[in-house]
Amino acid sequence: MKALAGYVAGLLFGLGLAISGMTDPARVIGFLDVAGDWDPTLVFVLGGAVVTTFIGYRLVWRRQTPLFESRFQLPTRRDLDTRLLGGAALFGIGWGLSGYCPGPAVASLPGLSWPLAAFVVTLIAGWWLSRRMNPGH
């Protein structure tokens, strides 16, 4: 049941990305082009995500335990270290250069193009390299 819930959530997320147009890298790059032909669409998508998360968390925290786990698993670290900041910078640079982040890239796989393939290859390479550098995570 836990795996099914994960697949349904992923499907809903992917559909939301496709319907909102966030699988189009030109739209994302247009959002980042604040000095040129700025496309504000992503602000509304992000706003919808914030509202949904705000409401969702309030509903979830009313429960004693999650539906498919014995307890909630929350992050305990609150510090900012060089690995976190470096990873965030790499993510932002990749997002700005390609117009893709992992969710929209996976949702875009049915319409595979060369830029998308290059992004997915570098995504997998980065994941592999991260696992090699941090064996236990």
From TrEMBL:
Keywords: Membrane, Transmembrane, Transmembrane helix
Pfam families noted in UniProt: DUF6691
Annotated transmembrane regions: 42-61, 82-100, 112-130
InterPro entries, sorted: DUF6691 (IPR046513)
Record-given protein name: YeeE/YedE family protein
